[in-house]
Amino acid sequence: MPGWLKAILIIAVVVILLIVGVVGAGVFWWTRNKDGLRAVATEGKEFGKNTDNQGCVDEAVKRYKKAPGFLAAMSNQGFLTRCLEVSRPTNGFCDTIPMGDFAEMGEWRESQCKRYDLRSSTDCQTLTMPVVMFCGDKKQTQN
C-alpha cells in the first residue's frame, strides 16, 4: 500500500473518531442537563406571562450576569426563547434588528452586548440569538 494512501486512511479514521467523540460528548451533556434546561425554559414561560418582550431580555441578561459563561448563555437562551413566545409585545422591539444580512445582524448583536455591558463576554451573542429568531419569525408572519 502506498504511503499517501496510508496517510489518507489514518486521517479519515482520526476524523471519524473526532466526530464520534463530539457527538458522544454532546449526547452525554444533553442527558445530564436536559432536566435543568427544561426547568429554565418553563421559568421563562412563566416569567413571560407577566412581562413584555423587553422585560424578557432584561431578565435573561440579569440572570446571565449572575452566572456568565457558555452554559449559562445556553440556559438563558432557552429562558429567553420561551419568555418571548408568551410575553406582551413591546412597541418597536424588532424595528432595529436587520434581517437577512448576516454582517449587519452580527453588528446588531454586538451592539446589544455593549448596551448591556457584556462587551467582554464571548457568549453574549449566543444570548441575543433568541431575539433575532423571535423577530425574524414575527416579520415572516407579517408578510
Q: What are the SSEs and their pairings?
A:
Layout: H1 3-48, H2 53-66, H3 70-86, H4 102-115, H5 124-142
Helix pairs in contact: 1-3, 2-3, 3-5, 4-5
- Give me the Rg, rounded: 20 Å
Taking the alpha carbons of the first and last residues, their distance comes to 60 Å
β-strand amount: under 5%
Major sheet characteristics: none
Oligomer: single chain
Mean pLDDT: 86
Structural class: mainly alpha
H and E string = HHHHH
- In one word, what is the shape? elongated
Determine the number of helices (DSSP H or I, runs of at least 4 residues). Answer: 5
Catalogue the unreliable spans: none
Features:
143 residues, mainly alpha, 5 helices, elongated
Structure in words:
- The protein has 143 residues and is an all-alpha fold.
- The protein has one domain (33-142).
- It is built from five helices and no strands.
- The chain has helices at residues 3-48, 53-66, 70-86, 102-115, 124-142.
- Helix 1 crosses helix 3 and helix 2 runs antiparallel to helix 3.
- It is elongated.
- The chain starts with a helix and ends with a helix.
- The relative contact order is 0.11.
